[in-house]
Here is the input.
Amino acid sequence: MRRIAVTLALCLASVAGVLIALREGFRHQARIARRVIGKPLGDDPHSADRTYKKSYGDPIELLLLGDSIAAGLGAETAQQTLGAQLARRVAKRMRRAVRLHTAAFVGAESSMLRAQLTSLPRHYRPDVAVIVVGGNDVTHRVKTSESRRHLAEVVGALRERDIPVVVGTCPDLGMLTAVPQPLRSLGSRASRQLATAQREVTTELGGIAVSLADVVGPFFIARPDEMFAVDRFHPSSAGHRRTAKALLPSVLSALGWTHALPWGHHGPPDRQPDRQPNRPPHHADPGRGETGVW
Here is the structure.
C-alpha cells in the first residue's frame, strides 16, 4: 500500500508539472501573438453612422452591437465598415433608406453588451439589431456559460420589445495564422463552442443566428491576404464586405422581406413566415434624448 501511495503521488506530481508547463507555454504563446499582432489599427474605427440611400425615404433603423468587427475596425474608410456595407445592401434590396446607429466598440466582450444597450437614447427603437461578439471572450478566457448568459440578457431584452435580432456568432479563431500552435487549435475549439452556445440561446429567444465560422470563415482561410487587415487579426475592407453579405439574408428575413434562410443561418423553430417589423410611430434621433429605457 505504501508503494502504491508513493507511485500515485509521483504520478500526480508529474501530471501537475505537465499542466503547469502547458499553462506557462500557452501564456508564452499568447504573449508572442500579442506582440506579433500589435495595434497597428488603433482603437478608433471609422464612424459610419448616417442615413444611407436617404432618397428612398421611410428609413429602417439598423442597430449594431458588439466588438471591433461590428464597430468596423480594419476597414480603410467609413464606407467600407461592416455597418455601412450592411446598411447599403439592406437599403438597395428593400428600396428604403437605412439609418445606422453603431453602439459597438473595440475590445467589447459579451458582458459589455448590456452597457451598449443602456447607452442608447431613451426613445430610440431599432427595426433590427445586429450583434457580433465573442472573439474577445475567447482571448480573455471568459467561461462559455458566462458569455452565453450575457448574450441571453441582451437578446432577451430586445425580444421583449419585439425587436428582431440577428447574431453573428463567434468566428473561428483557428484561422488566425498570427497565433502559434497549439494555442491556435485551442482557440478554434473554444470559439466554436462559444458559437454553438450563441446560436442556441439566440434561436431559443426568437432571434436569428448566423454561423460566421461556416459562412464567412472559408473565405478568410482561402484568401487571408485579402480578407485580413494589416494586423492579420481583424477583417479588412474586403473582410467586412464578405461579412456584410453573409449577414444580409438573415437581416432581410428579420425585417420580413423574406422568410427563407440559406445554409449557415439558423432561425427560431416557431418563427412566423413573412413577419413584418413593428415600427413605432416616431423614430427619435439616435444622437439625442435620455437613456435608461433598457
About this structure: The chain has two domains: 1-37, 51-266. Residues 11-38, 272-291 have pLDDT under 50 and may be disordered. Residues 229 and 236 are 4 Å apart (CA to CA).
